[in-house]
Design a protein that fits this description.
Helices cover 0% and strands 56% of the residues. The chain is mainly beta and 291 residues long. The chain is rod-shaped.
Length: 291
């Protein structure tokens, strides 16, 4: 039975190799080819033809192995770049004397992970924005970081495609952001920093004299709404959380003039809420702080 030993650097183990296999024959008294160029991870298979050939690595890249009839093959796998000289101690000597050879190993650089480009903020509202960028070839995911202009810490968001929506932003606030690509070979540098500004809260439509007062504010989810200069017709009261989810809605018919109404929000909502009043097509919006 033939015995095949695979050597990875200086470790001799039995294994299977799926890289390119290069054959070097050992006969009296030469290795053929004596000069061999391979890529990192390729297999160099020494094959015995005749006589006995103890094969010595001049750089100790492998332990000496002997090619003979009982051991007709031996595999060497070199994973580092460089030139590895060797010789047969029976028929040669170090320095390329007699039966000797060299293996030159080169490693291709890993594919680069490009920095994302084409950054753009779209669909900007008072509390949200969608960030777009050009897809990076080979990227498996991306890291988007954003923060208020002038803040120190970044808020990270993971994305698996060239876009990501950011929620829970503050109205009329400038944010800066950057994107990094993540590839199997490693991560890119972050892109150049870009900025966007959320929309301001709209306090009232042009042409409307409607006035709104909320007391108390901040509150615990219960507050009194005072409205003035209403027009006769339909009145809609809506409250949204910071993610844009509606948490309260009431519609009624009103007469011209004023209205005082107590509002009780569902339990569990805390933070910034937004109340939107609509009266005959006119709207007014205010921020509520629920504590």
């Amino acid at each position: 039975m033939k015995y095949i030993c695979t050597l990875i650097l200086s470790l001799c183990i039995t294994t299977f190799s799926y890289a390119t296999i290069h054959i070097v024959t050992a006969g009296c008294c030469a290795y053929t080819p004596s000069e061999l160029e391979v890529s990192c991870g390729d297999t160099v298979r020494f094959q015995w033809l005749d006589h006995t050939h103890p094969t010595v690595s001049e750089t100790a890249a492998w332990s000496t192995f002997t090619l003979d009839e009982p051991t007709p093959e031996f595999d060497v796998v070199l994973s580092d770049e460089g030139t590895y000289a060797y010789y047969c101690s029976n028929h040669g000597a170090p320095g390329g004397i007699g039966m000797s050879g060299t293996i030159t190993v080169t490693c291709a650089p890993p594919p680069s992970c490009d920095i994302p480009t084409g950054l753009n903020a779209v669909n900007i509202t008072t509390t949200t924005a969608k960030i777009l960028w050009t897809a990076v070839p080979g990227a498996t995911q991306y890291l988007l970081q954003y923060r208020k202009l002038g803040a120190l810490g970044w808020k990270p968001k993971q994305a698996f495609g060239p876009s990501k929506k950011i929620n829970k932003l503050k109205p009329n606030t400038t944010y800066e952001y950057e994107v990094q690509a993540v590839c199997p070979s490693g991560s890119s540098e972050f892109s150049a920093i870009s900025t966007f500004t959320t929309l301001p809260m709209r306090m009232g439509d042009a042409g409307s004299d409607m006035l709104m007062d909320i007391y108390p504010n901040p509150n615990s989810g219960e507050f009194t709404l005072n409205l003035a200069n209403l027009e006769a017709g339909e009145l809609s009261i809506r409250v949204y959380d910071i993610d844009g989810k509606e948490v309260y809605h009431e519609t009624m018919q009103v007469t011209a003039g004023t209205l005082t109404k107590k509002i009780i929000l569902p339990a569990g909502y805390k933070g910034l809420e937004y109340i939107v009043i609509s009266n005959n097509g006119h709207t007014a919006t205010r921020t509520i702080s629920v504590q």
